[in-house]
Design brief:
Layout lengths: L1 H32 L7 H17 L1 H9 L1 E3 L6 H14 L5 E5 L6 E4 L7 E5 H6 L2 H16 L2 H27 L13 H45 L2 H13 L29 H4 L6 H9 L2
Length: about 300
């Protein structure tokens, strides 16, 4: 468990670092082909932050409304409350608010920008189809997302994608507006200028795709990390592994889910489990369930 946690933390940090390198490269290239210089990065970051601010501070309310989740009392689902309270105590977190989606498809997610604002949402299908050990594993996974501030990490990734897309768009538009700026130092450097233009165009075209792939990779690594941390909380990896097997075998789609919220759930609620390998995995928000189960069984 400790090895899994440390490995996934390192990989998450590396992916964020690669994101920063990509943004720095784009900002430098944009500065070279325009009059803005290194100052190009400032407006891109400001705009991306403003675009993300609302979704960050109101993400829990938005996703609860979209998912048609309703708050539940301890009297209605006492065992759910007992599990959430026990795991919150084990994790050293405030008890998150509990919500239920009236749907027979088994699934769950957590939301909230910090532990004090966190919510844990489960479907009725999850409560009916899992035994207590499996339900504890799923809730521990979601509690780990809260403890690891994964919504903050995902928000950071969204901001970075926004910066990359803006810079890439500005680079392409700069060529439409007249191309690379002329400087006295450019005299006699035609080959270097041509290479720079080619590099700028390649970066502008490919960077949004690369940024999206990095964002998806971050999401997958945080799922692995939440699995490992969840196993640490329960001290029983087979519970979560068994729950994932049941969730994978259940082919009923979650009616309220959509592509905008699918990445938040413990498994893909759209039930596209036949992803295969190679390029298909790169564009997935979730790691293959088989890999997650194998990692848990090795603990």
């Amino acid at each position: 468990m400790y090895e899994q946690i440390a490995s996934n933390k390192r990989k998450s940090i590396f992916l964020i670092f690669f994101f920063l390198v990509l943004i720095a490269a784009l900002a430098w290239v944009f500065g070279q082909i325009t009059e803005f210089g290194s100052y190009a990065l400032i407006p891109a970051v400001v705009i991306a932050l403003l675009m993300t601010w609302g979704s960050y501070y109101y993400s829990d309310k938005i996703v609860l409304a979209v998912s048609k989740a309703r708050p539940v009392s301890k009297q209605e689902y006492p065992y759910l409350y007992n599990i959430v309270e026990g795991l919150a105590l084990a994790a050293g977190l405030p008890k998150p608010r509990c919500y239920v989606i009236d749907d027979s498809a088994p699934n769950a997610f957590a939301s909230g920008r910090n532990p004090e604002k966190a919510v844990v949402v489960v479907t009725e299908g999850l409560l009916k189809k899992l035994n207590r050990a499996e339900l504890e594993g799923v809730i521990a996974h979601e509690m780990s997302h809260i403890k690891n501030y994964d919504i903050r990490v995902q928000t950071l990734a969204v901001v970075m994608v926004g910066v990359v897309v803006l810079l890439s768009d500005w680079i392409l538009r700069s060529f439409l507006w007249g191309g690379r700026r002329k400087r006295s130092s450019d005299k006699g450097s035609g080959n270097a200028g041509a290479i720079l233009i080619i590099v700028a165009l390649a970066l502008a075209i490919l960077s949004p795709l690369i940024a999206q792939l990095i964002k998806l990779a971050v999401s997958r690594k945080r799922e692995f990390l939440a699995d490992a941390n969840g196993a640490m909380l329960t001290r029983y990896p087979p519970g979560l592994a068994s729950a994932l097997k049941k969730l994978s075998a259940d082919k009923e789609p979650l009616e309220v889910a959509n592509k905008a919220t699918a990445h938040m759930y413990i498994v893909n609620p759209l039930k596209d489990h036949k992803r295969g390998a190679g390029m298909a995995k790169l564009f997935s928000t979730h790691p293959p369930i088989e890999e997650r189960i194998a990692a848990l069984e090795k603990m």
